[in-house]
Amino acid sequence: MKRRNNKPLVVKEEISDDNAKLPCFNGRVVSWLVLAEGSHSDTASQGAESHAELPPALERTGGIGDSRPPSFQ
C-alpha cells in the first residue's frame, strides 16, 4: 500500500496459523518477525546454539508460489 506521495504504509497482521498464506505485494512476501511478549533475546549470541532449541521447520505448501505473477513461473 502506498500514499499519494509514494511513501509506504504499514499494515500489521498477526499470523498464528501455520497453514495460512503469507501476505504478498507485487509477487513478494511482505513480513517480518517480532519478539513475543515476555521472551528474552540475546542478540550477541545468535549462533548455532539458538537454533538447537527450535523444532524443525514446517514446510509451507501454499501461498507464496500461488500468488506469484505468471512471469515468475
Automatic annotation (TrEMBL):
<feature type="region of interest" description="Disordered">
    <location>
        <begin position="39"/>
        <end position="73"/>
    </location>
</feature>
<protein>
    <recommendedName>
        <fullName>DIX domain-containing protein</fullName>
    </recommendedName>
</protein>
<dbReference type="GO" id="GO:0005829">
    <property type="term" value="C:cytosol"/>
</dbReference>
<dbReference type="InterPro" id="IPR001158">
    <property type="entry name" value="DIX"/>
</dbReference>
<feature type="domain" description="DIX">
    <location>
        <begin position="1"/>
        <end position="37"/>
    </location>
</feature>
<dbReference type="Pfam" id="PF02377">
    <property type="entry name" value="Dishevelled"/>
</dbReference>
<dbReference type="GO" id="GO:0060070">
    <property type="term" value="P:canonical Wnt signaling pathway"/>
</dbReference>
<dbReference type="InterPro" id="IPR029071">
    <property type="entry name" value="Ubiquitin-like_domsf"/>
</dbReference>
<dbReference type="InterPro" id="IPR015506">
    <property type="entry name" value="Dsh/Dvl-rel"/>
</dbReference>
<keyword id="KW-0217">Developmental protein</keyword>
<dbReference type="Pfam" id="PF00778">
    <property type="entry name" value="DIX"/>
</dbReference>
<keyword id="KW-0963">Cytoplasm</keyword>
<dbReference type="GO" id="GO:0005109">
    <property type="term" value="F:frizzled binding"/>
</dbReference>
<dbReference type="InterPro" id="IPR003351">
    <property type="entry name" value="Dishevelled_protein_dom"/>
</dbReference>
<dbReference type="InterPro" id="IPR038207">
    <property type="entry name" value="DIX_dom_sf"/>
</dbReference>
<keyword id="KW-0879">Wnt signaling pathway</keyword>
